Batch of 2 targets.
Target 1
Amino acid sequence: MNTPADQEKKTVKTEAPLLQIHGLKRSYRTETVSVDALRGIDIEIRRGEFVAIMGSSGSGKSTLMNILGCLDRPTEGEFLLDGQLVSSMSRDQLAKVRNQTIGFVFQNFHLLPRTTALENVELPLLYSPDKPSWKELHNRAKEALDIVGLADRASHTPSELSGGQQQRVAIARALVTRPSILLADEPTGNLDSRTSLEIVDLFQQLNRDGLTILMVTHETDIARFARRMIMMRDGLIRSDRHIPPRDAAEALANWQDHDEDEDENHDDFESPVEGR
Ligand SMILES: Nc1ncnc2c1ncn2[C@@H]1O[C@H](COP(=O)(O)OP(=O)(O)O)[C@@H](O)[C@H]1O
Ligand SMILES: [Mg+2]
């Protein structure tokens, strides 16, 4: 018989990982130096996962994220996104896949100054291959701002928003194209501990709603709210393991202000990865 449960089993069984990379390498070559930033990486990420990538500065995290985000190409190796071979796509195809599948969030928010939150969020839709009507564009941007809890700040410019709010706008901008995967490179790197926890709480909510998330961080306190932790070192994966669930909302509810004083300032350096 073909009950809905059977069908579900079948789909789960046959569904390819959302993201697959094999033997991925990336070297930077200039006249004087050559850096092997990635030296052979294999990762498979399934739909619905929440993965943290850790590793000290220079270990290749951003290089990896930029390739996964279709912002850069590997020197060698295979990269499949949703079963499609990205490494052999043309520039145009790549731009399309990027726009439709991937949301990217950066440490420095990368918002346009003197441009309202709403307009910042609308931008990716303006560049979308099938650009929606102005009304729809507007509504979807509003909806995305609502998801990140900033509906009431739509007409504010970045300078009128706190760091945490700016990052929320950037997350709304990443979500507005309804991507399958959110890639975040040090999304809390410029935020204080409590605000960082609020961002990771938002990530957990989005993940519960089905969004696949890949987040780079060098802070164990942030990474532990993911469900899987990948450690990188010198362009290679050092470990890759599932970790027990932890609720960021609960951590926020139990938050005590004095914790803030004990935190180190992470702005200027990366702390070594635990257990190194
Ligand atoms: N555009 C580039 N040109 C040359 N070297 C680079 C470039 N980008 C990164 N690198 C080098 O590649 C290595 C990995 O960098 P990166 O991926 O930024 O690491 P992480 O994000 O983990 O700090 C470092 O040694 C870095 O100096
Ligand atoms: Mg980096």
Target 2
Amino acid sequence: MAGSDCGGTDSVANGKSRFDDIYNSPDPRAYFGRLAPLEYEIPHHAQPVFRQTAAERAALDDGRPHRSAVLDVCCSYGINAALLNHHITLAELYERYTSPARQTMSTAELAAQDKEFYTERRRPDAVPVFGLDIAAPAVHYALEVGLLDAAFTDDLEQGPPSPRLRRALAEVGLITLTGGGSYITDRTFTALLDCARRPVWVSAFVLRTVSYHPVVRALVTHGLCTTLDITRTYPQRRFTDERERQYAIAAVRALGGDPAGREENGRFHSLRYESRPNTP
Ligand SMILES: C[S@@+](CC[C@H](N)C(=O)[O-])C[C@H]1O[C@@H](n2cnc3c(N)ncnc32)[C@H](O)[C@@H]1O
């Protein structure tokens, strides 16, 4: 697998920095604390897109007895679920989890406060969100504070879905992804879509350093057609250092992209892919 979509300090995988420790903390403070200086911002760009797409997908369920769920893959601490279903911005989440007053709290104290915080900000049009991430402490936190309706830690790169995840996938109508495009491959998407029982759409923000084509091909075999918004790219985060900048420039060029004005200027950029059934 290619490596981290977020950033890193010490270790490096295929030229990209990574620091897995912040994915597996008991609460989101380390995650936001480490990513703040790198200005990790892709969930902010995805927020209006996922909200609009979720609303359009939900309209398909009109008249059906049960609403379909969103499955956020590589969901970590439930950040996309927080932004989708609450009156909240990514900037507010950074402020919250890096505030000096919250650094001395226990995880239990923070979770109790977060539960109240998200309940107060819950949107009336909130949709059910399931989360999938191999980082068990992160998804458990998201579940505990009410951001996720169900959480799964299956690694679909390594094996098939558990019976519990299979059952949940029958309810899923939209799969979302930010920051995970270099971790998961067509293997994960194939495993997910093999278990689908409703029309499933996919909305994904993927780094320009990674090819999404194998996933697009897997989606085609499940009847999904993918469109790429070529009008713009979405800044993801600053590079950790010059070595990482050089890696990204080379990786983008190798995939036929032009890093001028984007990666050359010091940040990873993502592309937006939307996949929907060929027939409604
Ligand atoms: C960069 S974080 C993205 C978190 C969140 N989506 C965001 O944008 O803030 C990448 C996440 O992918 C998760 N991950 C890595 N390998 C995975 C796999 N095989 N299946 C599911 N999640 C995985 C990591 O645990 C981590 O939480």
